[in-house]
Amino acid sequence: MTENPKNIVYSVAKAFSVLRAFGPELPELTVTEAAGRAELDRGTAFRLVHTLVQLGYLAAVPRSRRFRLTLKCLELGYTPLARADLKTLSRPLLRELVPDSADAASLGMLADCDVVYVERIQGDVSRSSLDRRVGSRTGAYAAALGHAILGFLPADEQIALLSRSDRVKLSEHTVVDLDQLLGRLRQVRDRGYAVSDGENAYGLRTVAAPIFDMDGRPIAGVSATIRAERMDLQPFLAQAVPQVRQIAGDLTEAIRLSFGAIAQYGR
Questions:
Q1: Is the pLDDT of residue 126 over 90?
Q2: What strands, in cross-sheet order, belong to the sheet with 66-69?
Q3: Domain range spanning residue 90?
């Protein structure tokens, strides 16, 4: 924890550690087992377990010394998550990138051959090339967001989509050759993220990572974009790649925790 210790109520943290001790592989635990998995002494675990029983988040298993989670635990997060959409969930995460780490941050989804910007946080938009509004489109073949999603699709889907794309050079760095693009997508899949350095627009650098649904299929992507004059490519990658991948991972996990409900929105 990086928070000032004086501001932390450690009994709350310990209560959540007891709840996290339960899992699909261990749905029922004794007090001793819960104490071990939560790294607490048995007396503390005993009091927390019985408090959680009184609050309705744990229940005693009949004719045993074990306890289990109750459905009330779903109220802690599932209902808000399931009622939100990916756009809403991404907004505060994208805001954390702008302006400290990037000039713009986006959530995008595939719409046939294009990437549609579903959410967009922008800082300095004095340059028209940086100003992309929600609902605007760009060719997936030439965008880091597009590559981040395409890179995790089956090869036959990649070929079909790229083959019917109207691939034109948006800058001198834009890759339009099909074989070269397929090679780029293999690189994206291997490293887990996509990079564009002036390929979609002159003077802009972008990093993007995919968001997956419950079946492991890419349904969206998150990106961070910066003006080339603000930062060289390698320092930008060192800073932005972990952040973008973390946000994409958090949104993927949100979809998993909502049992796929979130993935139904924004398509």
A1: no
A2: 28-30, 66-69, 58-60
A3: 81-264
Q: Domain end: 47, 76, 105, which one? A: 76
Distance set, CA 95 to CA 9, 121, 123, 210, 247 (Å): 28, 6, 10, 18, 11
Counting the structural domains of the chain, the total is: 2
**What is the per-residue pLDDT across 183-200, written as a single tens digit (0 to 9) for each?**
999 999 999 999 999 998
- The C-alpha atoms of residue 35 and residue 94 are separated, in whole angstroms, by 38
Let me know whether 186 and 239 are in one domain. Answer: yes
Could you tell me the pTM of the whole model? 0.77
Which own/partner pairs from 81-86 qualify as long-range (CB within 8 Å, at least 24 positions apart)? 81/254, 81/257, 81/258, 81/261, 81/262, 82/258, 82/259, 82/261, 82/262, 84/262, 84/265, 85/262, 85/265, 85/266, 86/118, 86/211, 86/219, 86/220, 86/251, 86/255, 86/262, 86/263, 86/265, 86/266
Contact 121, 104 (CB under 8 A): yes
Please tell me the distance from the alpha carbon of residue 101 to that of residue 97, in angstroms, as a whole number: 5
Residue 133 in tokens: 């509004």
- Helix 10-21 × helix 42-55 angle, to 10°: 80
Amino acid in the structure at residue 147 = H
| 103 and 214 fall within a common domain | yes
In 3D, which of 210, 197, 201 has the Cα closest to residue 237?
197
